[in-house]
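Take one record.
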Amino acid sequence: SFADHREHILQTAKALVEDTKVLVTGAAGTQEELANAAQNAVSTILQLSEAVKRGACSLGSTQPDSQVMVINAVKDVASALGDLINATKLASGKPIHDPSMQDLKESARTLKEMCTSAAAAAGTTNTLYGQRALHRQPLINHGILSA
């Protein structure tokens, strides 16, 4: 069932948020640190994509809207990550007041919002005859949403 996949999806979304923080910090570091941070974030988004795909498949053909919702959410996260990586490359080595640094902050904020939305989609996906299986509290417990 989807519930079996939910915890892994939530943990991976949280890991991606942490990778995002390292990636943004990497803009002030060396090219090697930046490359490693980007590589880790890409690895995590691939893990998240796979976890979401497995979860969507577990929903079965009786819940196509839920399948589409969670898959679209992870697509949005992947797109936002690509934007963040590009913004990080542009901001790398620039002074803190450079406009590219503001773009970097905005890209990071957008990615965090997309991760939150993906986690919420996973958390609210119906798994048993239309009943809501998960509410906000587990998202708060995982540090994805604030109380």
About this structure: The radius of gyration is 16 Å. The longest helix spans residues 31-59. The domain at 2-141 is CATH 1.20.1420.10 (A middle domain of Talin 1). The mean pLDDT is 83.
